[in-house]
Amino acid sequence: MADPLLDRAARLTLAIARDGDDCAWCRRPFTGQVTPTTDHLVPRVKGGPSWLENEVAACRRCNRARGHLSPSDWLAECERRGWHPDTDRVTRVLTALAGAITVRGGQRRARPYLEGQLRRLRRRAA
Ligand SMILES: [Zn+2]
């Protein structure tokens, strides 16, 4: 499991190595024009930790446009815009976050939010 104390740049590099070199939401490849940023799946305002298991690489445009929307609401909005967001990636990372919380403990505020998101993602997939 990744060290939760890795700095943000190191986590972003690892997120890209883990998930691929494109935005989780709009799927544009990261190039000179499209800069990767760290996007918290469970937003920090909802108690989401700055762990690799709560982060995906997103382009600056998507990160800003998403704001504090939940992953499931933002996935729906991406689809409404005609994009093909990586729902499997989002589900995989949120599932890893649930596992990391089980191991490390804490994150009492993030837990119910995370459980609600995983339920909604399972429903979407069904
Ligand atoms: Zn994007």
TrEMBL record:
GO molecular function, one term: endonuclease activity
Gene3D superfamilies: 1.10.30.50
Domain HNH nuclease span(s) in chain numbering: 11-64
A family per Pfam: HNH
Keyword annotations: Endonuclease, Hydrolase, Nuclease
Protein name, per record: HNH endonuclease
Organism of derivation: Saccharothrix lopnurensis
Lineage: Bacteria, Bacillati, Actinomycetota, Actinomycetes, Pseudonocardiales
